[in-house]
Write a structure and sequence with these properties.
Length: 324
């Protein structure tokens, strides 16, 4: 199993945990009735990582996150945050985690401010400090001006931002977000992205789940591809692309009815007005095509190496396409 490793400054908490990992998840298994939701999920994170769980609905992302927060108990395996066990030391672990669940949980009739007061007290933040922190999180989420309005008047995106604000009140070291951009407007989405980048730059470790490839590409320095209850591949985007991404060359020559033949081509496919030639040896194939172009006097409109995509990585490691 690949270990996710990122070099970041040590904190008092990491020094107390193993090997500088703040989070160590080992062999998680979980079944609901007859459905095996998780099978042997293992990963470790160093502080400051922005870690993305990419997978389709039902892959097991939410279940993994809920086990980290202590909401769900695993059948076997362990999750330790700063050496504290998520299942048996839930209160200690909760102090470190800000959790933004998939479903928005707010009191519609209360104002944004009142909602945050409620959540802050639940986290044990009180009095002047709570006021100060509510101001801080409202400013961060761009909702200071709407603080006193009832949440029922908010858009889905604004509600989601308040939900994130609530998870930040106790200044967590690990922020877990479960598909936070589903069904929200682009403005809120951009705001959430900026906020996550800012928090991560300030040292907050992020776990972000999504079924949108472009989100993990934009936000995460480590990606775990999850499908059918297990992590199929894990690592930095560049490493995943290099290791599993499909390399190809795109060739467009008007009137070329058949794809060129070469032992370096594994699959040829018509794409647009040209041919997509999949290969493990793009340089050798390129040389061959340049020779062919010259010998056959092709009128080449386009000839280029196609960068492997995360989509092709997903296809390779899971055997299926990730549909949005
Ligand atoms: N409370 C539950 N009772 C029964 N089955 C459940 C429960 N929660 C999750 N499951 C099942 O466990 C599997 C993993 O679900 P999970 O919610 O962890 O996946 P996910 O990747 O987060 O997908 P989604 O985005 O749909 O939440 C799915 O087959 C799901 O139907």
């Amino acid at each position: 199993m690949v270990q996710v490793t990122i070099n970041s400054p040590q904190t008092a908490e990491t020094a107390a945990s193993n090997n500088g990992y703040m989070l160590e998840v080992k062999g998680l298994r979980k079944a609901y009735a007859k459905k095996q939701a998780l099978e042997n999920v293992t990963f470790s994170l160093k502080p400051g990582t922005s870690f993305g769980f990419l997978g389709p609905n039902g892959a097991g992302k939410s279940t993994t996150m809920k086990i980290l927060t202590g909401i769900v108990k695993a059948d076997s395996g362990t999750a330790k945050l700063f050496g504290k066990d998520a299942a048996s030391e839930t209160d200690a672990v909760a102090k470190y985690i800000g959790y933004v669940p998939q479903d928005i949980t707010l009191y519609e009739k209360l104002s944004a401010y009142q909602n945050l007061e409620f959540f802050g007290e639940a986290y044990g933040v009180k009095g002047k400090e709570l006021k100060h922190r509510i101001h801080e999180v409202l400013a961060r989420t761009g909702l200071l001006e709407r603080a006193n309005e009832a949440v029922s008047t908010f858009s889905g995106g604004m509600k989601r931002r308040i939900n994130i604000a609530a998870a930040l009140l106790h200044r967590p070291k690990l922020l877990i977000l479960d598909e936070p951009t589903v069904g929200i407007d682009p403005q809120s989405r951009n705001h959430i992205f900026e906020m996550i980048r800012e928090l991560n730059a300030e040292g907050v470790t992020i776990i972000y789940s999504t079924h949108y490839m472009e989100e993990v590409e934009a936000l995460c320095d480590e990606i775990a591809i999850m499908d059918q209850g297990s992590i199929k591949a894990m690592g930095p985007l560049g490493t995943l692309l290099e290791q599993y991404g499909q390399k190809a060359i795109y060739l467009e020559v008007p009137g070329l009815a058949e794809p060129p033949r070469d032992s370096n081509i594994t699959v040829s496919r018509k794409e647009g007005s040209g041919w997509l030639l999949e290969t493990e040896q793009p340089s050798a194939l390129m040389q061959h095509l340049l020779r062919e172009a010259s010998q056959q006097a092709w009128d080449v409109k386009q000839l280029e190496i196609v960068r492997p995509s995360l989509e092709s990585v997903f296809l390779k490691v899971t055997g299926t396409a990730l549909r949005d």
